[in-house]
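To whoever picks this up:

The nightly regression suite flagged Putative amino acid transporters as changed. Nothing in the input moved, so I suspect the structure step. Input below, exactly as stored in the fixture:
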Amino acid sequence: MLKRDISTTSILIAAAGGMIGSGWLFTPFLGAKMAGPNALVSWVIAAVFMLLIALPLCELGAMLPLSGGMSNYPTFTHGREVGFLFSWVTWLSYVVMTPIEIQAILQYSSHFFSALLVKEAYYFKLSPIGYVAALAIMFAIVLLNTYGIKFLTECNKYASIIKFILPSIAIVSLMHASPSFENIHLTLTTEESWMQIFSALSAGGIAFAFTGFQNGLMLAGEVKNPQKTIPIAMLGAILVGLILYFTLQLAFLMAIPKIYLQQGWHPLTFPGDSGPLVGLTLLLGLSLVATLLLFDAAFSPLGTTLVYTAATSRILYGMALNKYLPSLFLKVNRYQIPYMTLYANFLVGALSFLPFPGWQKMVAFLASASIFSYGVGPVCLLALRKLRSEQYRPFRLDNSFVICYGAFFVCNLMLYWCGFPVIWKLYLAIMVGSIIYFFYHRNTRFSNKLSLYWFFSYVTLLLLLSYLGSFGGMGLLRFPLDMLLIFPFSLFMLYLSQHCLVKDAAEQESFELMNKQLQDL
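Regenerated output under the current build:
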């Protein structure tokens, strides 16, 4: 049993702090290149979508405050197989987060230690020295996580204060240096401008920047008063993130010197743009601010890795509780921390440095995996309203039918906007997870074949729509017709998801497992 030792303040800071990692260091630049000033619209849309997605998760998180969070829910509603596949995608979206944050640390640190990186044609990659440094940082973070969740959240609380202060300094400094709105011209009347807005939202890292609000769910099994704490943490974190990121994007757009905009926003480049905020402050003569940003460029991702390393270990812990993985991953140390999952994630994270050459290369894939996992919320909330209508719900979502359909629709929209080059990779990752599960459980009877048919139909049709569509696909489905098709597709797939729920013996087994996990609440 994990110890319930996290306060409302700590979990809110963990969720909000989890969003302020490397995203704020790169996303304003990527958003500006992809959508220009229209990137401001992307931030607002992303925040509204994330608030809609978070509402079903608030009810589920308060009702089932389990370690591993939303990775548990599909097991209770759709059986072991679909439960594993959703957990697999959730784990993928988390396990490579720490390596990417560490890559950001080393990329900015290369201003002082150039030997950490090797420059390729269009990106930077870790040198052998950089790889050793990355492993050392990751191992140190794992060690910190083994000393107890209260120790971790206290460390993160103070780290997050600095993480909020320095971006705020950057915002004020950039606006003071360039107080004019001459660069801010919104263009919302053309199809191309809206395609750029949507692409920046998904593929440009804006949706990725909001990942972190769900950390309150991953640590729910260790939260005091989860009924009150979890909704505050998730919704509050999204609002904090919107205010910070929107003002940072605005300040960045205002501060770009006109000389670098002669060819427009898309080919935007300037000296030092490998670390865009530092490069921009140096261009403006803000050397002191640049020095502070260089410090925070290492510090912010480090704080995020503390949170994500803890959350990722709880996903594996939850998968072991659900009997997807060996009981070895249920072992805890004297601080009641699942240490075996920490070390397993360390090994996977160490290997993930090899195929991922840089921060930007992984943003769209990570966003797609995170968004896909958010679909658990609306699917499982409606399912549990059927299967466990009598169960106490400390936070009950009004108009749940409409909100769940809306949340599932925006999940699929954002997935589609990631583009076919990303979606096929996500599909391949899901197929790899399927092979692993079916091999490991080759002698086990299926708990719910019907839900498997639904799951594979869902991901395959999504892949087909992406292939035929206008976001990196064949362009046979023209914008905005392609987006209009996502609406009936989402309605149909969510409708089918409620007709393949666990039944009879499988339902009994599933909810015995759920009740066992809840018995210590």
